[in-house]
Amino acid sequence: MKHDIPKILSQMTLEEKAGMCSGSDFWHTKAVERLGIPSVMLSDGPHGLRKQDTEGDHLGINDSIKAVCFPPAVLSACSFDRELMRAFGDVIGREAQATDVSVVLGPGVNMKRSPLCGRNFEYFSEDPYLAGELAAAFVRGVQAHHVGTSVKHFAANNQEKQRMTCSSEADERTLREIYLPAFEKAVKQAQPYTVMCSYNRVNGVFASENEWLLTKLLRDEWGFEGMVVSDWGAVNERVKGLAAGMELEMPASGGYTDRQIVEAVRRGELDEAVLDRAVERILTLVFRWEENRESHAFTLEDDHCFARRAAEESMVLLKNEGVLPLDRKERILFVGEYAEKPRYQGGGSSHINSFRVSAALSAAQAYSHIHYAKGFSGTADSYDEVLAAEALEAAAGADKVVVFAGLPDSFESEGYDRSHMDLPACQNRLIAELAAVNPNVIVVLHNGSPVAMPWLGAVKGLLEAYLGGQAGGEAVAAILFGEVNPSGKLAESFPIKLSDNPAYLNFGGKERVEYHEGVFIGYRYYDKKETAVNFPFGHGLSYTSFAYSNLRLDRDTMTDGGMLTVSVDVTNTGSCAGKETVQLYVADRTDCVQRPLRELKGFQKLSLEPGETKTAVMELDDRAFSWYSTELGEWYAAAGEYEILIGASSRDLRLSASVRYETERRLPVHITLNTTVGELMEHENTRPLARLITKKMDAFFGVGDDNSETGKEAINDEMANAIVASQPLRGVISFGIMSPEEMRAEIAKYSD
Ligand code: BGC
């Protein structure tokens, strides 16, 4: 039955309406029985259901129902696979319908600004395009079952330290180009039922009461049709938040903030129409759920299989000097407690009560007899002489040694940040020692964010398993033994050391954190600065090899509002089936403004049999070429040349082609008496004025005058031009080269 929401709204009292704007308890909205308004449940999310039946909390402290723990975003992002993310959403949507959860609180799309953020494991990437594409696919999958999602945490929530009060200070261009596009894409492409505002302030204003974010951008610009929910406890001033566009406060406020809303309306400080609009949006969510219940039977076993597939499609083979896949006939030793007790998810509100967890050690016995030495504990950082000696002795007699290393739970979690990028020292030491006694050491990493790798040169193989979800152990075993050909690609860069990271000097501030690196985060920074990394964004190996050929653009000129289709052939040149993610980067060669060297604007994952060739087809709209000009208040692509780069990673670029961008649009020109001649020279439209002034100055100073040879020795033409370039126009007047009237008249001709 379709409910008449305006009619129901008109029958509600002021108190009932205010009451709708906060939860009834930790996880539910309020019911109004006399009007048939039911209560609905919101639950974490997103990589599995954390449905709490009894004691609620937002830190993952109390138990939730037994569920399936899928790979967290840090791993699933490496699939670079929209189809997989959609299928993932589909599984979550079915589970949610079956367990009466109307909104799953995710996905988390914040950018990974620093490897230290304690919650990086819950976020997709350092790249907004990738995060946005994957989030939109996931949202579509979940919402196909009329279950809502909550794209979070909006916005610029990139550290855990003082997350409830700290202000993220970033300029508008940086926000628009880096920290907001993943939200924007999810909203525009998939209309999530809800967006969750973050705890932090953005440029001084709490996200929960930030009208620019919640209304101007989200609704007016992006066309968001859903409802904004606060992060749990993110409300600062309730009435201010409501007016700014924050509809539902979670969890319950004990009626306190509901009363504030009622009083504000009574005192005429809050327009009742604002409250009505908020309640209408909340009721839309509630009845959408009520009217679209689906009966789904799901089995934990089936979904465990999906969790395994998602992990297999995502784990990243970072290094392989001929040691993988393992041969079943070899004598293989596993070392490290994570082999039997994997670290497979992060701590905090996304923590799933997994119904089963598979370990690589038991899963691998299906392929071969595996020898095992614990070597070190997975929960502490203490070098155990006895365990280490056992492992080293066993390693000396093994053909290959696989070390299961990683970060203990206490090293990274929601609620706090890491203070360094290191693995426990005991693990680093043992890996180095193992490599000294055995030439074939392979490391399998269990971590939610990059780690330093002092032993990298000494090991022959490295598999980034990240946090693999409950079936991660099976995926690791299948990849190690070559039953599954790895196809994950890194969704973030791996710096060599923490101080290489662009946020190093400005991360973890208490009251304010300045985003001084601007748009240069992740590979955008490492590439521009030519900084070596352990592994670049987009990197990931396979057991087969791929050749790229035949790059085609369907036009050589791109325009505003146009579309460019890019095609490229990929051939599997090896001997086993495999998958390759073709990546497309756009490089701006116009020199109009400081930009990253290249940015990801397209990708496609192809599945190829040996010898098979397929074509990846990617489309670019004008936004793919644009940067955000705060002067124009719009996205802008300057006229000129752009390069389309195709690669297997951000630093393994195989093919390129050029395209010209044609547009009548220009950045506005504001000329004042402090504008320099050099600045006039930079822009096509003002160049004639620069030339006129240079000519007059040359005449005045005798530059180019053949008679003054001595003068030429002191200053040649080139030097003179460089000096003139820094001259402000007022200098031209004060030297008497041009009169103030003449100059004003010239400026008027060229200024917008
Ligand atoms: C987290 C959210 C989560 C909420 C509910 C908060 O602490 O930041 O991501 O959805 O709790 O558990």
Model description:
With 752 residues, the protein is of the alpha/beta class. It folds into 4 domains: 7-53 and 63-291, TIM Barrel (Alpha-Beta Barrel); 306-532, Glycoside hydrolase family 3 C-terminal domain (Rossmann fold, 3-Layer(aba) Sandwich); 546-662, Immunoglobulin-like, CATH 2.60.40; 677-750, no CATH class. 30% of the residues lie in helices and 19% in strands. The protein contains 23 helices and 29 strands. The strands form 8 sheets. It has a 6-stranded mixed β-sheet. A 5-stranded parallel β-sheet has the order 1-3-4-6-9. Helix 4 packs parallel to helix 5 (128-143) and helix 12 crosses helix 16. The radius of gyration is 29 Å and the shape is globular. 53% of the residues are buried. Beta-D-glucopyranose binds next to loops.
In short:
By secondary structure, this protein is of the alpha/beta class. The protein has four domains: 7-53 and 63-291, TIM Barrel (Alpha-Beta Barrel), CATH 3.20.20.300; 306-532, Rossmann fold (3-Layer(aba) Sandwich); 546-662, Sandwich (Immunoglobulin-like), CATH 2.60.40.10; 677-750, no CATH class.
Indicate the CATH topology of the largest domain: TIM Barrel
Report the uncertain regions. Answer: none
Mind telling me the C-alpha Rg? 29 Å
Q: Can you list the strand order of the major beta sheet?
A: 10-16-15-14-11-13
Give the full name of the CATH homologous superfamily of the largest domain. Glycoside hydrolase, family 3, N-terminal domain
Q: What is the CA–CA distance across the termini?
A: 58 Å
Mean pLDDT rating: 95
- Report the structural category: alpha/beta
